[in-house]
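Journal club prep, notes for RB
We'll compare a predicted complex against what the paper describes. Inputs for the flavin mononucleotide case:
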Amino acid sequence: MEEIFIRRSIRKFTNQAVEPEKIDKLLRAAMQAPSAANQQAWEFIVVQDKARLEQMAETSPYAKHLADSAVTFVLLADESKMKVPTGWEQDMGAAAENLLLEAVHLGLGGVWLGVATADFVTENVRSLFALPENIRPFAMISVGYPDGQKNQFVDRYQAERVHYEKW
Ligand SMILES: Cc1cc2nc3c(=O)[nH]c(=O)nc-3n(C[C@H](O)[C@H](O)[C@H](O)COP(=O)(O)O)c2cc1C
């Protein structure tokens, strides 16, 4: 699939808004992901408000790009919906990648910002959105029309990482 090979992290966006139909497609793509025991514990906050995006950009030292995104999706998981709690991060990772690939497909660019990867970012996001205890923030994915940067192929194939039949 072409989108897998050309996807890049895009951190510079024009000020063009992302159409509501495209936002809908991105959410549908995320929720189409596989999940442990089909638990689908995901929840999403969709943010387009500039002032809010600026606050979100302060939640991590690596989130500056977020302020200028057209839309940022906060990916969350509801503990109360988890049948296999140990699978939650895998589930959310699959949903995140689906969203990013659909963005490429729609002519958009996006970037994954780790939230569950650092406790202090988790706490910042938790308090900014006043999340209930059972809601775990996973990542924030910023999307928009790329400005300057573009999705393009970079070859990362490493033949020596592939092991046939045995280690
Ligand atoms: C778990 C995870 C956390 C990430 N966190 C950040 C982040 O905090 N800020 C950022 O700008 N990019 C972040 N990225 C994007 C990576 O930096 C990027 O995917 C990587 O450098 C490879 O580049 P590519 O996406 O263009 O292939 C994250 C990606 C993943 C998968």
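Talking point for the session: The longest helix spans residues 88-105.
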